[in-house]
Amino acid sequence: MADLHPFFVHFPIALILAAVFFDGYSAIKKHDFSRTTAFVLQGMAAISAILAALTGNQAETRVDSQEKLASSVSQILERHVSLGNAAVWIIVLVVVGRTFAVLEKKEWASSGWVFPGISVVLGILVLITGLVGGELSRLVLQYFVNH
Known about the structure:
Helix 1 runs antiparallel to helix 5 and helix 3 (67-103) packs antiparallel against helix 5 (114-146). The chain contains 5 helices and no strands. The chain has one domain. It is elongated. Helices cover 90% and strands 0% of the residues.
């Protein structure tokens, strides 16, 4: 399963960034379809983020089992794991909160900048996590090339 992490990790990144676009559009144009699309995309991102986290945790275990590799990438690995776990929890909490707001027909949730603002912050967190993961991949590859 650890080998599937690079496959799964790209889905929540793409879905969250698309949700940011649709949330922003819905806030500017007051477009219900865009708001619904952003909501669905965030739900799909939550599911795919959980899969990315599960496979990422297995990949982390694999790295930790190789002591020399683990020592060479420990700082960035720890940062990536922390950011990734935070992103997963925040995505899930946003989806749960948004679902509650939609089901309860809360006016603040269906208009304004609350969820678009949250989407932008979440998008930034996911991008940073992805960039740190990319740097981690580069360091791991560099380790194997040099050893």
